[in-house]
């Protein structure tokens, strides 16, 4: 009678060959739907004057609309000056649309369509983060147009988007176009400080019984080289946002003179807690929107990668760990992230800190909660002397579907503008004002309609933020196509 070990030697190779055959067959069949690859006509061809739009963006960049919690009178004047300038730049839009200045500082426009039900909301913000002049090729508030680009704070984030929307509206109105449904433009002045502008707009629409059928805000863009095995441009559309939370770690002690330090002092225990969090990061996994992204882009990847993505159900734990190690971006896509950003201790080199503090910015993955993350962090730190306090709890936004008409409208406008780009959902890593609109609309999407290189993306909130004039023109084209379709 054959021995079990002998049988295993006979059967195991056959099982491995069968498994390999299944994996390869699934990979061979794992191809994009031909209908999805077809670029829609997008209606009539779109022609825009990107150079003229660049001039208007330049004027808006010169307004120093820097977000701070308590702005001085000079700063408030810059915001008012921008509000006053818009009617001069876009006269047709301001004749045709109803403009409402909410709370004396934010803008809500209504463009009446043939129907009022399920309107579209297009969003942008006109506040910017601070910018020091050091390190800039052109001063951050110069609005310089040079080397085929518009330079300055807000060129990408997001005065450029505001210009694209208003340019599209202006051009369509001049052509005699009327939308089928109402279109609202929601422009706020405090997105960069997570202010109450967008929540106020949401409450206002709620009180008026308005439930949007589609909301589009800043978010993903057309990018390359971010997904393993995929060549060519990818248009990433945010269907959800990670939660943004702020935590604080606090250790208290006696303090005293540094000449006679105790064992396990406050600074040491805080440092040990941070090290433990670094060594045991949150478990990697793929929430549903990320699985959708892997399915969409995996079908366009090289064959070796398709073997992996075609068999995601079997290989997900392995792939999630791979994404966790590949790069900071893929790590953020596959887990909650914890970034220690501030540290406080003793005010002097020879004084022991009576209290040591660390601030941590936590981006909560879809499917998790801030409270759940805090509970896990306490277990990992495993030190009762370290107090973990939630300063601000922000859970992930709801996930907007990719299987209904609103998403298809956005995807079609992208493919009409960027025919070579593969359109895919993803979870947005940053926060935007659009998360507030999830309370009144299940179809909230986040897409910035530019081709952005890694270098260009890295200038957002940094030196030398600038936008190619050509990209500005493509952004206007996207909004024209979108408005025509809704």
Describe the structure.
The chain is α+β, with helices and mostly antiparallel strands. The protein has 16 helices and 17 strands. It folds into 2 domains: 265 residues, Zn peptidases (Aminopeptidase); 152 residues, Alpha-Beta Plaits (2-Layer Sandwich), CATH 3.30.70.360. The strands form 4 sheets. Strands 1, 2, 3, 6, 7, 8, 15 and 16 form an 8-stranded mixed beta sheet that branches. Strands 11-13-9-14 form a 4-stranded antiparallel beta sheet. Strands 4-5-17 form a 3-stranded antiparallel beta sheet. Helix 14 packs antiparallel against helix 16. The model has no long low-confidence stretch (mean pLDDT 92).
The rough form would be described as globular
Number of self-contained structural domains: 2
CATH fold title of the largest domain: Aminopeptidase
Average pLDDT confidence is 92
Uncertain runs: none
Number of helices: 16
How helical, in percent, are the residues?
25-40%
The CATH architecture designation of the largest domain is 3-Layer(aba) Sandwich
Number of beta-strand segments? 17
Beta fraction: 15-25%
Radius of gyration: 26 Å
Ends distance: 74 Å
Report the sheet with the most strands, covering strand number, pairing sense and barrel closure: 8 strands, mixed
By CATH's scheme, which homologous superfamily of the largest domain applies? Zn peptidases
* CATH hierarchy, class of the largest domain: Alpha Beta
């Amino acid at each position: 009678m054959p021995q079990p070990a002998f049988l295993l030697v006979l059967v195991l190779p056959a099982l491995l060959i069968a498994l390999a055959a299944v994996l390869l067959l699934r990979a061979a069949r794992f191809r994009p739907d031909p209908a999805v690859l077809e670029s829609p006509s997008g209606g009539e061809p779109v022609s825009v004057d990107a150079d003229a739009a660049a001039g208007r963006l330049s004027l808006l960049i010169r307004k120093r609309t820097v977000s701070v919690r308590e702005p001085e009178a000079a700063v408030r004047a810059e915001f008012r000056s921008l509000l006053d300038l818009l009617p001069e730049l876009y006269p047709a839009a301001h004749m045709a649309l109803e403009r409402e200045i909410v709370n004396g500082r934010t803008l809500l426009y209504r463009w009446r369509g043939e129907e009022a039900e399920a309107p579209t909301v297009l969003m942008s913000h006109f506040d910017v983060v601070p910018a020091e002049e050091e390190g800039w090729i052109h001063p951050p508030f110069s609005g310089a147009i040079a080397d085929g680009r518009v330079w300055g704070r807000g060129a990408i984030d997001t005065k450029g988007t505001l210009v694209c929307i208003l340019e599209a509206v202006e051009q369509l109105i001049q052509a005699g176009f009327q939308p089928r449904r109402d279109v609202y433009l929601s422009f706020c002045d405090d997105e960069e400080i997570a202010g109450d502008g967008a929540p106020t707009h949401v409450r206002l629409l709620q009180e008026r019984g308005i439930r949007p059928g589609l909301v589009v805000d800043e978010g993903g863009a057309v990018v390359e080289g971010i997904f393993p095995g995929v060549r060519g441009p990818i248009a990433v559309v945010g269907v959800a946002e990670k939660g943004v939370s702020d935590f604080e770690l606090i250790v208290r002690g006696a303090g005293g003179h540094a000449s006679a330090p105790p064992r396990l002092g406050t600074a040491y225990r805080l440092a040990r807690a941070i090290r433990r969090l670094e060594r045991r990061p949150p478990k990697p996994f793929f929430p549903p929107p990320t699985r959708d992204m892997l399915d969409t882009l995996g079908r366009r990847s090289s064959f070796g990668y398709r073997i992996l993505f075609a068999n995601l159900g079997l290989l997900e734990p392995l792939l999630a760990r791979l994404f966790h190690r590949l790069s900071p971006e893929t790590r953020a896509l596959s887990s909650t992230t914890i970034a220690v950003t501030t540290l406080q201790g003793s005010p002097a080199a020879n004084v022991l800190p009576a209290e040591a503090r660390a601030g941590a910015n936590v981006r909560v993955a879809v499917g998790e909660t801030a409270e759940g993350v805090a509970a896990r962090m306490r277990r990992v730190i495993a030190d009762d002397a370290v107090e973990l306090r939630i300063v601000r709890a922000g859970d992930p936004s709801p996930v907007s579907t990719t299987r209904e008409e609103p998403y298809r409208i956005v995807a079609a406008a992208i493919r009409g503008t960027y025919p070579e780009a593969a359109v895919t959902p993803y979870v947005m890593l940053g926060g935007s004002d659009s998360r507030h609109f999830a309370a009144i609309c299940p179809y909230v999407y986040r897409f910035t309609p530019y081709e952005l290189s890694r270098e260009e993306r890295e200038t957002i909130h940094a030196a030398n933020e600038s936008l190619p004039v050509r990209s500005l023109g493509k952004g206007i084209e996207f909004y024209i196509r979108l408005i025509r379709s809704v």
